[in-house]
Design brief:
about 240 residues, mainly alpha, three-stranded parallel sheet, two-stranded antiparallel ribbon, about 55% helix, globular
Amino acid sequence: VLNLEECMFELKTMLDYLDSLFNDFEKEKTSRKSYEDNVVDFSNKLDKVTKLVDDMYNNRFTNIENYVVKYNEYIDVIPSPKDPRFASKINGKYLSVILSKCSMKYDVILIDTNHLLNEINLITMDYVDEIIYLISNDPIDLKNMKSMVSILKDMEKDNYKIVLNESINKLNHYFNNYDIKNIIKSNIDYIIPNSFNLKNINRYVIDGKIITLDPKIQKMHSKVIKTYNDIIDDILKK
């Protein structure tokens, strides 16, 4: 003898499961479409700086707005090439033109570089008001910073700050702060503590998000965010 109430309950459970399964498939399809669209959009954005230099070289450059990517209402970005080999094709003489154009439009210009003393970085150092060096507790990193401090002194440059980033690998404690100062022959201006070590940091990098602007991060790491704000205030006072 069938129990009608139990049968109806089992049927409803199965229908709910099928409905949930259908919704999951729809969400996956939507997410995949969004992901594919974002990949194409991101690839196009990464070609901006290469196109900018190429247009300058071939006298096609009109205005800087055609080459920037809007991050939000206050931040625009000119992304680097997706292929690192293209970076070497950017002639340093165009960098001064780019910076000149940007300085007429923006209040603050941030330039993310590598540690090499190549033509582009040397031109950048001549144009910027302040240089921020990020170092870690790694011995090789400290050795490189020691050399850089020596070079900056020879160049009679003192417009730089050194930030010790302890959050990269919170298990690295080769040297204490006193040791680091003696090694690099310079003071440490700011410290990003190891408490800021984020397990999901790659997600922010892949999504192209600025970590310090995330409301959750700001709430969870308020002291570290204050350090970042102090660095910004220090730069803006120059």
